[in-house]
Every structure is written in C-alpha cells, then in structure tokens.
Specification:
Layout lengths: L21 H24 L1 H8 L6 H26 L1 H21 L3 H15 L2 H12 L5 H9 L1 H20 L1 H18 L4 H4 L11 H4 L1 H8 L1 H30 L5 H28 L3 H21 L6 H15 L3 H11 L5 H30 L2 H26 L1
Helix pairs in contact: 1-4, 1-5, 1-6, 1-7, 1-8, 1-9, 3-4, 3-5, 3-6, 3-18, 4-5, 4-6, 4-9, 6-7, 7-14, 8-9, 8-14, 12-13, 12-18, 13-14, 13-17, 13-18, 13-19, 14-16, 14-17, 15-16, 15-19, 17-18, 18-19
C-alpha cells in the first residue's frame, strides 16, 4: 500500500468514518488553508498603507514575513505530535485562532512591537495547517484519487493570496487599514467555528494521553538529515520559497511605488499572480505524474522562475499592462505552483510510514527560506534604491537550482 502524503509516524492509516467523506474533508481543509494564507499575505497586500500607519519603511515588509515564518518553522516541527494528541481539526482551529490574534494586534495597536508579536503569532497559526490537513486527507481519500485531492488542497495557499490581493486593498481604500485587517480576523474566527461540527468525526483518532516530548518535535529534522534525497529536496525548497515569498511580499509595493500602479490595480496583479499559482499547482502535478519525472518538472519550474524574476526586474512604468500581466501570471505559476510536485516527491522518497514526519522536517527548511529571503530582498533593494535589484538577485539561485535539478533528474532515472 503506498504511503500517502502527510501520514504520520506510528499512525495507523485507518479510514475515516462515513460522515467524513473526501469532499467534506477537502472543503474544510481547503477553507482553512486559504484563510491562514490570506492572513499571512494581508499585511503585504496593504504594504504601503500599513507602513504609513506605523511610520516605517515598506522595505520592512520582508522582516515582517521573516518573523511570520520563524513562527511557522517552529510550529511545523511541533505539528506532528500536536495532531496526534489533540486531533488534526482541533490543531487547525487553533491555527486559525493564532492567525486571528496575530492580525488583530497590529490592527488595534499599529506599532512595531505589535507587528513583531503579531507576525510570530500569525506564523504559529500558519505552520501546522499543511501537516494537519494532510493527516485528515490521508484518512479520507481513496489512494487512486490522492494525487488530485492533495493537489486541489494545496491550491489553498495561492487561493489565499488571490483573496488577499482582491479583497484587502479595496477595503483599505474604502475604510482604512484597521478595518481591512479586522475583516480578515473576522473571517478566520467564522471559519474556526464553522469547522466545529466536523470535529467529532475528524478527530476521533486523537490520543489525549500521548506525551509531548522534545525528541518528538525534532524527528522530522533528523529524518531529513539522514536521507540524501530528502536533503536535496529540502535545499531546493529553501531557494524556491525565497522566490515565492519575495514575489508575494513585495509585488504590490513594487508596482505601486516604482511603476505607478494604483494600490487596487497592484492588488489585482497580485491576485493574478496567485491565480497562476492555483492553476500551476494542479497542472504541474498532473504533468509530473504523466509526462515528466518530478526532478525534471522542478528543473523546468526553476528555470521559469529565473526568467520571470529577471523579467520583473526589467519592467518599467511604460511596460504594456498586458505584458506585465502575462509575466506575473507566469511568475506565479512557477514560483507558487511548485509545491504540489515537491510534496509528492517528499512522500515518495520517505521511508514507509514516515511521509508526515518527512514533510514536517522539509517544511522547516522551506520556511527558513522565507525567514531569511524577504528580509535580504528588502535590505538589498533598500541599498540599491530599487526593488528591481531584489528581483534580479532572485534570478541567480533559481537558475542554479534549475541546472542542479536537471542533473539530479538524470541520476534519478
């Protein structure tokens, strides 16, 4: 029997009860994933307005995202034992609560201390969601439909970006940054309570007596360190996550401040790039299953990221809007769309029964890329006086990854 993505060490992959059919579980997990992703990108989507409200430079958005993913990295390592003890849905509900509190703090108290604490809390909410949702889907999804179902669930991340870009800037323009953030807070709280009727069915496998030990939190990192293939994938994800979050974090600020787009138009282009990621996550996984091996598919996506990052650096105020739209959709399709292929390959390369632990360990590397990438992007852009320098810099490591992954694909075959 194949190991499904998200299966946790020591977990019996028992089928979910009849009330927990695949569609309902997918709907719940997709909704939670989309809302926490929207919460992470809510502040970047209103970057100039939020920076003005706090009296700081928009370049500090990178530091904000870095702090979010410090919290996410810690939470991802803690997720496996928490899911087994408290249940995957309860863990997801607590994640929504963490995001809500993390956004409410800077909304009600617009200051640097509130932004720092809020970013960490938002990250603590974001980190457990992917392992928890994978745990739920592994129990409710027939093996022959697992690839499609998991791919659809993974679209929740860019879908949250679409929502952030399409909803947050218009609310900022109409009612201000505080109302915009509190609207996202309200959505997270509503989703948290809406998921409660599913709790009894979906968390029936929890073990309240299961102890929480420090060793259980570090199991994912130890596994990645012992498996060469997992180390390669984790390193790749470190670079790819830098490209993904630099696109999402700074795009609105770059378009608005450097190219003269209105905040609403810039938010619309952010949504378009995220929509490219939604389509890409499903399309690339389908192609990797049928036409290309995963390493070759990831190599092609890395090359596309490098080309699109270089193209973003070359954009000018008079660049045709259609060309900008096409470039950013392609950027999103590659820089955001790689995750499904990556997670599926992590599951395939994991020892039997250890896919969930391997996922939590590799996600720590993925999140670490987000911790260091956007702040470096912001610092470089601040020194150079333009965000073009940051996007040009992103093109270099992604191009190197393309070459390395292509060679690894030859060895794997």
């Amino acid at each position: 029997m194949p190991v499904l993505p998200g299966k946790l060490a020591g977990q019996v992959n028992a089928p979910a009860p009849p009330s927990a059919n695949t569609f309902s579980v997918l709907l719940v997990t997709l909704s939670i994933q989309a809302l926490v992703s929207m919460g992470v990108l809510a502040v970047p989507a209103m970057g100039p307005a939020m920076a003005q409200a706090m009296g700081v430079s928009p370049a500090l958005l990178g530091a904000y995202i870095g702090l979010v993913y410090v919290g996410a990295m810690v939470a991802s390592l803690m997720s496996a034992p928490l899911v087994l003890r408290y249940g995957a849905l309860r863990t997801s509900q607590l994640a929504l609560l963490g995001c809500a509190v993390g956004l409410a703090l800077p909304a009600l108290w617009p200051s640097l201390p509130a932004a720092v604490i809020g970013a960490l809390l938002t990250g603590l909410g974001y980190g457990p969601v992917t392992p928890a949702s994978s745990h739920l889907l592994a129990r409710s999804t027939p093996p022959e439909r697992a690839s499609l179902v998991f791919s659809v669930k993974q679209t929740g991340v860019p879908l949250g970006g679409v929502m952030a870009g399409a909803i947050v800037p218009p609310i900022v323009q109409a009612a201000g940054a505080q109302v915009a953030l509190l609207s996202v807070v309200a959505a997270c709280i509503v989703c948290m309570f809406a998921a409660q009727p599913f709790r009894a069915a979906l968390d029936e496998d929890r073990d309240p007596a299961r102890p929480l030990r420090m060793g259980s939190f570090m199991g994912g990192l130890k596994l990645v360190g012992s498996e060469p293939a997992l180390k390669q994938l984790a390193t790749m994800s470190f670079v790819f996550s830098i490209a993904q979050m630099c696109l999402s974090t700074y795009l609105v600020t770059y378009l608005h401040g450097s190219l003269g787009y209105t905040l609403v138009a810039a938010g619309g282009l952010l949504s378009a790039s995220q929509a490219g990621g939604v389509v890409g996550r499903i399309a690339w996984g389908w192609m990797a299953d049928r036409w290309l091996d995963p390493y070759r598919m990831l190599a092609i996506l890395a090359a596309a990221m490098a080309v699109c990052a270089g193209g973003a650096a070359l954009m000018q105020a008079d660049t045709p809007a259609t060309l900008v739209l096409v470039l950013l959709v392609a950027f999103g399709a590659s820089a955001i769309g790689w995750n499904g292929v990556y997670l599926a390959e992590v599951a395939r390369r994991s020892p039997p029964g250890m896919a969930g632990v391997a996922t939590s360990g590799t996600l720590a590397f993925t999140f670490f890329g987000v911790v260091v990438g956007p702040p470096l992007f912001g610092a470089l852009s601040n020194v150079a006086g333009s965000y073009r320098a940051g996007y040009a810099a992103v093109a270099v490591p992604t191009a190197v990854c393309a070459l390395v992954l292509w060679r690894l694909g030859r060895r794997a075959r």
